[in-house]
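Provenance and format

Records in this collection were gathered into a single text stream. Each protein contributes a sequence line and a token line. The two records reproduced below are adjacent in the stream.
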Amino acid sequence: MPHPSACLMPFHGSSFKGPARRFAGALLGFLILGLSAPAADRFHFSFAGAGAGALGDFRKNVPGAFGGLTLDFLFSPNASPLRLGASFGLLIYGSESYTDFFPSRYADFEVDLTTQNAILLGHFLLRFEPGRGRWRPYLEGLAGLNHFRTDTSIDEYSSSDSGPSVTNLSNTVFSYGAGVGLTGRILPWRSWVRRSDFELRLELGLRYLRSSDAEYLTEGDITRQGENLVLDIRRSATEMLVARLGLAMRF
């Protein structure tokens, strides 16, 4: 493997001088060292619990914390520190359970209902994770879609099936963001040639996500006036911080 300083040869006689040249050399050396990551790091799959908090105008409508789950799939071409993949998630930012009456021709039946407000997340993911130690920090960028939806369903409709449901509102918007995190090796599995073929790692991360203006409902935004349902639809950009804690598999 060439020494990082060998990569500075193309810059001789150029405008790169002093601190700028030293910074460029350090950065190139950092990247070259990272390119020798072991083959066991090529594929990454993680499952994490998520806690989120709204920011900006979104926080005015959703003031409390909420949670959910995330799934990440990443691939490292040529075992480099750059990882490409996708991230999926589900966040529940409000839920109401109540009793209402279901009318029929001869009687009104009392039923239990649940209205749930959720965000489905789907993003392309680019992650930079240098280093080969037990603990590895990373930086990442995300771009994709947030799907806001509110559904109302009848609870325990039968012993073997969920009850009927209706979507009160759904809206999909473009979303982007950035994140930082850290993974730590918990369990390596080594083959007879002493290479790590599988690793179980602890993963902690924090992401900032922002979307263009979205339409969504919050708790109490659905009311009835006579025989008509009235939706008090909120509209704003949606900013949030999403903290993640989970397990990652590398192979």
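Adjacent record:
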Amino acid sequence: MASENKNSGKAIAAEAAITVTTPVIAEVPVAKKVIFKKRYQVLGVLCLLAIVTYLDRTAASVAEHGITDSFQLTEKQFGWLHAVFSIAYGIFQIPSGLWGDKFGAKKVLLFIVLWWSAFTVFTGLSPTFTIMLAVRFVFAAGEAGAFPNISIAISKWFPAYERARAQSFVWMCTRMGGALAPLLILPIMEHWSWRTVFYSFGIIGFLWAILWYKFFRENPSQMPGITNEEVEEIEANRKVKKSHTLLSFKKLVSNKNLWTLMLMYLLYMFGAYFYLSWMPKYLRQGRGFDMKQAGFIALPFILGALGCLLGGFSTDYLCKKIGIKWGRRSVAVTGLMLSGLCLISAALVANNFTCIVLLSFGLLCKDFTLPVSWTVAADIGGKNAGAISGSMHMFGQIGSTLMSLGFGYLVAETGDWNLPIILIGIIVMCSGLLWLRIDATKHIDNLD
């Protein structure tokens, strides 16, 4: 009897121990699952791509003195080097987005990153300026699909209430890529050559493609290690459209709100593309900067990254306080007007340090409005958000092309490097004024 009581006491004690310790063990993985959600890992990989994209895109700008010396380029020819990129980039915006809708972001991003990485390497192999122009065009045709398909991946992997923040981080990382470019490119050029820059960046693109192929899954439910709770959270709130229909041509050409948005973005990109194309050359030849001081080129992009992040959070906050119409509009008007003033002031000041500071704040204010533009395209587009965003971005590339060529021709004809900056500042302010005519509450289906 005593033996039975002793055994019973041991059994009860064992059960009590199990009862106490089991919840403690179960709590540890739950905390990790909350911190390391799979969708944030996906966002991290997409942000890496955003950095790679802008490393490749800005390489020709930062390495301009090596390329110019090798091919003996004039200002007009240098303008065409960037114009052919903008032309191809604009042409393939909508087709690459539709391709992603049909085949999925995994396949399309894998293909186009391998494509443009190969042509990044071929850029370094270009024996003549004419061949480099052709390579640059084909390179841009591939890179055009990057952000439409990043958006497709975000739409499938994030609840609707987290998408704006996810986009803000992606665009912030594009500016980080622009900031890293001179810090990587100038030392490579000093020790090797400008051609080595393109070989190196091409390899980085290939490595990202391998990571993407092994890691990413098209739908959250297919991802190894994801919890059922996270899958349910995403799928219940992501609102992915099940079919893609193109807007009719009549609806596109008859809506004033849409045309104002597209014209605004054309003028916006006229200013924004200066930083991606002509700024290093302007600082070196127009201002006499020493290009070994890479921080001067990096500073505008560092502040631009901050602007992207602040703009997305600011417009969401103001929309809750004063409504969508003025919550979007007020951020955009304020940012672009201040950006234009900074650019004009930068061209007029004599001190080089003051100039680069003003240019940097000009990009910060301009990028403060960037998430607003893309969010309003979605607001207006509704079920046709992809088509509206693609149309807006395509118009933006018209502005990029005009700026690339106009800057070079204006400098060649006048010899004045500051005059184009003043004109860019005025155009950016006009872009801000157009926001007074853009209403984010008017959906495409309801426009007159």
